[in-house]
Each structure stands twice: as structure tokens, then as C-alpha cells.
Amino acid sequence: MNTLSAPRIHLRNNPSRQRGIGLVELAIAAAISIGIIVLALQVVPELRASGRADSEVKLLPKISANIQRLYSSQPAYPVTANAIVTDGIKFNVYPKEYIESPTALRNRWGGAITVTATANQATIRYADVPNLECAEISTALSGSFRDLRVLNQATVGTAVAPAATDTMKNAQGRLDIAKMGTPGTAGRCTSVADVNTIDFIISK
Fold first, then answer.
1. φ, ψ (nearest 5 deg) of residue 148
2. Contact 57, 137 (CB under 8 A)
3. pLDDT (tens digit, 9 = 90+) per residue, 72-102?
4. Who is most buried in 11, 29, 35, 56, counting CB within 10 A?
């Protein structure tokens, strides 16, 4: 008995179709890669800045406590220029990585650290603090110092001297959020040059 066999169908690969799918996949992969790169470029610097700010938030109260301890047996802080810096370097008040010379200090951003005093008050001045770190440090440390003053700098390497009116605290001794401002407006930690001077003030 003769039986009819089903015709054989030969499926052929369609090169043009395969190429089309490959190009679509490649385009999707490229778009995802570009998205990841853009995200990394935005997030990584912020994470680094936040890490530097966190380190400083932990370190500054220790420096303050070390200064207080160094002069605890004295009736007043030394008012001689740079005395607290040179004394502090000799007696390990400051972290070693901040010591530039036997008479000079630099912070983690490369800005100068100066310490001045009247009889009952010492001012630790940090220069060249970037906007983001400035805002985080000011917010976190407002309760750790008697006063906290911030002023935007015009250029890197040129510290300014914050005045009493540049305090970050209100009459109740709390951080005045309104003074923080936003980039391009009046406020603190909003320098166009992305550098600020911060005064951390302690007293006996």
C-alpha cells in the first residue's frame, strides 16, 4: 500500500533576522551600560564626599577634646599666634596625616587649619571645605561646639574670616537651617568656587 508522506519543510536560518536581533540586543546592552556609567559618575563622588564628611565628624570632636585636655590645667588658652597649633603638634593633639610641618596643619581637602585663641575661647578654622562636606559637617557638628561659623570662599586657598553674624546657630543655640541656603543663593556652604571656611569654636 502506498502511503503519502508529509512533505519535508526545510527551515532555513534567516541571517538578516539574526543580525537584527543582535543589533537590538547590542543597543539595549549599550544603553544599560551608559546608564550605569552615568549613575556611577553621579553617585561615586557623593559617596566619597559623604565618607570624608563622616570621618571629619568623628575626628573634630576628638581634636576639640584634645585641645581642652592639653590646657585643662591652665587658667586660659595661649593667645600667642599659632601656639595651639605648635603645642598640639608636639603633644599629639592632631592626626599625623594633618601635620604639614612642625608649625602647620592641613585638612583632608588640602586647606589650611589654623587655631587662634583669646583667654577663654579657641577657634579651629578649616579652609577649602567643599560645599557638600561643609553642609554635612555643619549639620552634624552644630551641637558639638559652642559655636559654628561658616562663610563661602571666593577661591581655593584663600580662607576668609567668618564674623559673629556668620554663625550657623540661632538664638536658641540650634542649627539655623535657613542659613544653609541653596547653590546660587545667599547662604552658607554654597560657594560658587565649591570651597568654604568653617570656624569651630570651643571655650573653657
1. -140, 120
2. yes
3. 999 999 999 999 999 999 999 999 999 999 9
4. 56
